[in-house]
Amino acid sequence: MPTDQELKDLVKKKYSEIALQEKDTNQSSCCGAGGCSTEVYNIMTDDYTDLNGYEADADLGLGCGLATQFAKIKAGDVVIYWDLGAGNDVFIARTEAGETGRVIGIDFTPAMINKAIANAARLGFKNVEFRQGDIEHMPVGDNTADVIVSNCVLNLVPNKQGVISEIFRVLKANGHFSISDIVLKGDLPKPLQEAAEMYAGCVSGAIQKDRYLQLITDAGFVNLTIQKEKPIVIPDDILRQYLPETELTAFKNSDMGIFSVTVYAEKPVQSAAPCCGSDCCK
Predict the structure, then answer these.
(1) Is the confidence at residue 251, as pLDDT, over 70?
(2) Model's pTM, two decimal places?
């Protein structure tokens, strides 16, 4: 079993390659990672083209949802977006936050950062910035963001609980997040669990839906809501790369499911510390 660091190195390598791929290649695979399918187009991604701020040249065709659409960004908000790709989601969030807002894009892949910076410079955007960093240790201070948004990232991180704790740290009191991700119902066949491409492709790194939601609640978030849920169907020609025909048939006939969910939750307003002595409330 690969170590956490080996998995992170794998993701960094694959997403450096993805930064140089054509959008069509990314959309016809699992999060762009590989296993290109001849059976379907656009396995996971949703259509961004009607959203204000959409920039075709900054759209790599990645992700598994449309979290920015559900993020409830208001004018003047400070927004953090992680796993920024070539910057498209950051530019959409920038439109929502307006000239008085600010958007910070975070990615740990230098190739993605460089691509996003070039696109922002070409478009003349001033109220966006890009920082290279690990989302388990976000390069921002406590209580910085009004909103955090991401699209198909948490499933790529081995320490999911650590990332959710980081979200809580970085959000302001009463701030919120909207995150699209891949979750499971039932167990993946072992060959899919062990396949490196399926990890980098957002599938084998996913956890059970109930566990995913419980981690968010345990971190202290409130008003947890599933904003959207859709099944993810991996085409047979991809699955056959990992499963023999008998296992493929059993998998397709099982109750096991792969789903994209967009989840919203809020960081509560912190209450004052309770009185602990005879004169502390005077």
Answers:
(1) yes
(2) 0.76
